[in-house]
Design a protein that fits this description.
The chain has 467 residues and is of the alpha+beta class. 48% of the residues lie in helices and 9% in strands. It contains 19 helices and seven strands. Among the domains are: 5-53; 127-314, Cathepsin B, Chain A (Alpha-Beta Complex), CATH 3.90.70. Strands 1, 2, 3, 4, 5, 6 and 7 form a seven-stranded antiparallel sheet that branches. A hairpin with a 4-residue loop joins β4 (232-242) and β5.
């Protein structure tokens, strides 16, 4: 029996309502602010499920030098005996992403690590607080551009984190921006200058603040949430210190999201915000995770003031050496296994910067050998997201399979494999082993996750391939 016209009209109206709601919801979800949150949270759900099924903290990288991942032996004597004397290129600040088809080094000589040189500290005021920063809570996973944007506001830049992110992380899924990328952005896209160094310390921060320069640092961050996030990297902007209270004053783009007002606080109220307290006692351990790296932004005419404030860290080569010597001292003075892991990792990172790849590889081997002894929930399984020194060390010592295995593990443990550096170094190793097809595929994939990534573009050009 056919429906009467009244029933047909009711069904038609119901379908029209459903279609209208779907169209409206689609339109709302497609709005950039909404879509960024929807896509972020959907990825978070996927990540939660994947990490529950395969906890990344349980994975252990086993370099080819190991016979058994469970057997831990000491190789500190080997690195002390065989590590080379640094022979840096005096005019080039090396980054681990700088060369598309790099050549190998030869001729190395032994060395004995010595305590880093020190200067007699200049008497400084007991407290300093630099003002004039426009606070900016970060977008999701955007602490690098957000912190840099706050820094640039000190010099009346007039833009926000979106402008920086469009250049340094054009793919919003990119999980990290390297210090050198932030420095390059300042030097190439603003009228200001910037530099970065390893080997910073509290005295360096205080001296720079007294000279009128905020200091951007990268450090470990383990936020307390309902879901244990574990160890990760995070940028802070240091704007003050107080010796009496034993605190630094920092602007933290992540913590700003969780202030009582939230991210929607009007800018005129943010302008009166002083900052968050960060204790001296927490600084060293948190900063050690990133080899005490820091960034300074300044007006071009004040470059001499910056270099004077940096003291022994004025040149990048000296900073690499100071950071290395400090790391080697900490390998024997520290007792906590995770701290010792970072000390050995820092030694390798500094040696890579000094182009001493054989010793760097040994230092990284030692760090990875200690990794299984770190309590599972405290393991820094994200470290290759931020610091890619092991790739360079193993590549330059022709341990191509180790590069590939480390990249495979790093990418495989991610909810979404978005690390352009891992694809790049794996491509170099595939090419070195004669597998041009896989090398080109990896280079092109790296450009999907970081459009315009210069090292990958340069190598594709050398291979005569289109991006």
């Amino acid at each position: 029996m056919d429906d009467n016209p009244t029933d047909q009209n009711k069904r038609l109206k119901t379908w029209l309502i459903i279609i209208t709601v779907v169209v409206l919801l689609t339109g709302v979800v497609s709005l950039p602010p909404v879509w960024s949150r929807v896509s972020y949270h959907s990825r978070e759900v996927y990540r939660t499920v994947k990490y529950w099924l395969r906890p990344p903290s349980q994975a252990v990288f086993v370099p080819s030098t190991f016979d058994d991942a469970l057997v831990v032996t000491s190789v500190s004597a080997a690195i002390t005996a065989n590590a080379p004397t640094p022979t840096p290129t005096p005019t080039t600040q090396l980054t681990t992403q700088s060369a598309a088809l790099p050549s190998h080094l030869t001729a190395e000589t032994p060395f004995t690590p010595v305590p880093p040189p020190t200067l007699t500290p200049t008497s400084l005021p007991s407290s300093v607080l630099l003002k004039g920063i426009s606070c900016e809570p970060q977008f999701m996973n955007n602490c690098g551009p957000a912190t840099l944007s706050m820094y640039l506001s000190y010099y009346d830049w007039g833009k926000d984190q979106s402008a920086a992110a469009a250049v340094v992380k054009p793919n919003g899924k990119d999980v990290n921006v390297m210090p050198y990328e932030l420095v390059d952005f300042v030097n190439e896209h603003t009228a200001l200058h910037a530099l970065w160094r390893y080997g910073g310390d509290l005295q360096t921060i205080k001296t720079l603040l007294n000279a009128g320069f905020p200091v951007m640092i990268e450090k470990s961050f383990e936020p307390y949430t309902l879901r244990n996030e574990g160890w990760m990297g995070h940028y802070n902007l240091v704007v003050g210190y107080d010796d009496e209270k034993q605190i630094l004053t920092v602007h933290d783009s992540y913590l700003m999201i969780y202030t009582p007002w939230g991210a929607e606080i009007p800018q005129n109220l943010w302008d009166s915000f002083i900052g968050f307290d960060f204790s001296y006692s927490d600084l060293e351990q948190a900063w050690r995770s990133f080899n005490f790296v820091f960034i300074v932004v300044y007006q071009p005419e004040r470059e001499n003031d910056v270099l004077k404030a940096l003291g022994l860290l004025a040149t990048d080569e000296a900073a690499y050496q100071i950071a290395y010597d400090r790391a080697m001292l900490e390998t024997s003075s520290l007792t906590d296994v995770r701290d010792k892991f970072f000390a050995w990792f820092n030694a390798g990172t500094s040696l890579v910067s000094l182009q001493n790849y054989s010793a760097a590889a040994t230092a990284f081997d030692t760090a990875f050998e200690m990794y299984p002894d770190i309590e599972v929930n405290s393991r820094p399984y994200r470290i290759l997201w931020y610091e890619t020194g092991p790739y360079a060390a193993y590549y330059y010592t022709e341990r191509y399979q180790d590069v590939i295995a480390l990249a495979n593990q790093t990418l495989g443990l991610m909810a979404e494999p978005v690390l352009e550096e891992s694809y790049y170094w794996r491509a170099l190793s595939y090419y070195a082993l004669g597998d041009t097809t896989r090398a080109v595929a990896d280079l092109r994939t790296s450009l999907i996750y970081h459009p315009g990534f210069a090292p990958s573009k340069a190598m594709l050009e050398q291979l005569g391939k289109t991006p």
